[in-house]
Request: fold
Amino acid sequence: MFCFVKAQQTQKLYLSGTGNDNTVNWDFFSTEGMNSGRWTTIPVPSNWELQGFGKYNYGFNKEANKGKEQGLYKYKFSVPSDWKNQKINIVFEGSMTDTEVKINGELAGEIHQGSFYVFKYDISKLLKSGENLLEVKVSKHSANQSVNEAERKADFWIFGGIFRPVYLEALPQTYIDRVQLDAKANGVLTANVFTKGQADKISIELTDKDGKKFGNDFTAKITSGLTKIEQQFKSPSLWSSEFPNLYTATFTLSKNGKPIHQIAKKIGFRTVEVKERDGVYVNGIKMKFKGVNRHSFYPTSGRTTSKKISIADVELMKEMNMNAVRMSHYPPDGHFLDVCDSLGLFVMDELAGWHGNYDTPTGTKLFKEMMLNDENHPSIIFWANGNEGGHNRELDHLFTDNDIQKRPLIHPWEIFGGFETTHYREFNYGIGNYDHGHNILMPTEFLHGMWDGGHGAGIEDYWNAMWNNPLSAGGFLWDFADQAVVRTDKAGELDTDGNHGPDGIVGPYHEKEGSFYTIKEVWSPVFIEKREITAGFDGSFLLENRYAFTNLNQCTFEWRLKKLKAGADAEFKAGKADTPNIKPFEKGKLQVDLPADWKSFDALYLTVKDVYGKELFTWSFPITLPAADADKIVVKTASSKVILKEDAKVYQVLANGIDLTFDKITGLLQQAKNAKGVVPFSNGPVLQEGVNNFKNFTAKMDGENLVISSKFDKKESWNTLQWTIYPSGWLKMEVKYFPSEYFTTFVGLNFSYPETEIKSVEYKGNGPYRVWKNRMKGTEFGIWKKDYNDSATGEPAWQYPEFKGYHSNMYWCEFIGKSQTFKVVTDREDVFLRLFTPKKSKDTEYDNMSPTFPTGDISFMNGISAIGTKTQKPETTGPMGMKNIYYDFDKAPSRALDMTLYFDFSVR
Reply:
């Protein structure tokens, strides 16, 4: 009988939990701050501030305010009996910051300095049978000043504690110590296998995702402590962000035919190549990186995360059609890199260093720890040595010398290694430089997303320039999620440290801001050329394939026609279109075969899904225009008559139970009243960025309608206002006006309406998220019901979509108040609805965001304002961020801007 002997795999015994969703209580003592000076317990892993210990501090805090506490940990454990004669390591995946480890009262090794790195001690000789005592002393701030400069004096929250898992690992005395892998797109797998002890052979077996063997096994003779292996595999499925094909490489160490030790690594066949003055190529394809910066962070647990959080983060990035992520500003949890490998994101992994850097001895040690744990992940295609000046150049050679894959090295915010990565370039200056430069262009931070500024605002301009510039390799937004931490010392309030932390595209608990959907549309790998749905529409759309590896015939195209009705489910017809054969970076046509009655619907929706069935985006196209809607909605006739009463000051008009009062001099609506009482909507239209020089009003009957109108005069009253009151009680307003300046922040008409009165609105237009002049994409055409909220982006309680702000392409809006409800309809296209003024969040001293709004409460606008970023004024984020431009001041009525609105003040 033949017996197969299995090799021992590295065994693990967790002393802590595995993340913030799985912890183990250890004994704990904090030396300063909250709950200090007494022994109690703390969950491990965790940051102690989030557990009610020590002191919260943000990296920018002055020295006097910094928490300098230490945490003392104790934990008793026993070693499995079958681990006898094994090499036993204790492994810390991350501890903030200086960490002293004792086993049974004896030091396990030198104090570890540096927060974000996996470190271990061989404690085989310190263990005893039965119960063992682990004692750990963690100092929040390091005795090594360079560690504080690199990690602690940074633009992010500073935490303390054992924040990543702790475990024991057991290995045989002869074992595989390290494997370095380089799996190229041509199928060549190169491995450096480091071994300890007495062995004579190492074998490799590859299996695919289904566990099926791939290629032939390979066996090599052990040569001293390092064995170099090269093996050719035929036609492997390649790894990329679009197709993250992984294989499992199993290494078995043996002696005299007896297997001793076995480890397995996930690998991906892919080749990364930088071509000078050209670009970054993955598997021979030139890439445009659609990336974001990401902190390891969760509001209830600080830097302690979990695999569940890693999956959620990557899935949200993929949902925004991103293909890359930068680790800011330190190496992440291993499970995050595992998820990037399996779901498909290109990664820039970063040695810590914000504006300061590690000294060379410390940096060398921490570099080796980072490389040892991260080097084989196929998702990592860049290394970064520090950030924004935090580059110790003496460490640069280590990346090249120690990386078997020779991945490119980046100095974020520098021109280095053929890359121009400068942060937060203004559009004209940056893009101008790019157009005339020679380096590969890849800003590692751009469009800073503080509050509601940046990210979606400006990204269309930037991306159009990046996409069309051959030297551009894309870039990385700042940043993924708001850094709001739960303050256990302040009744659980979420704290962003003012304007330091609210920089995310999503909120602290992954609440989606409006920019989320803008990015999703702008970065869609299926680009749909703008088109109008007119009577001559033949069902065709011009597409561009912006994928690098996917043919559009691998995607799914679904259409839906809807009849939009307020307060009711829409009637619809739906179907699928034949997928077009359009190769990456090519253009082609999609043909949608619509039913013969498609013109009877209000809107057409086109949804594109990727090869995995995930939505890339849903585009919406109005079929019915506002004028047609207004014809159906506005009621003009009734059995009653319009009655006019006037005195020296006002026109008072009665029609079908509606009582309207107009100022006879200014022409403004003073009051609207119905059987329930006064409708609190008045004092308009007041021109924004224009002069209310309506003059010489007259009132006359036009058939059954009453018309109150001003007189045009090119010198004194070139802006005109006309009211038409119908027998039905509906009111029509027509304004023709000229802006006061060539360049205007916004233009439109204001009315007064008390914010305390509003409950909600229901409107037809683009929604549900608000827009800015430089963030118009990401919305969907439909009917939207929005309840009032006073939410400000990036502030408690992260309630999205925000109620206040600009909403585009309004057809009609019903204002639902606490006492009265009324409706406004337009027959004009491209009208913006402005709902009140959002709270202005605390900007920096430069006041760059400038989210300016008109006067009044409710506005109907022809042009709206843009928003800036933390580092840029709105107008420097690109052409869309510039002011509205109106050059024609001829004052001819035919050249005026115009706004037509209909009002229904009847009882509901």
The chain has six domains: 8-171, 175-267, 286-522, 526-628, 633-728, 747-904. The mean pLDDT is 95.
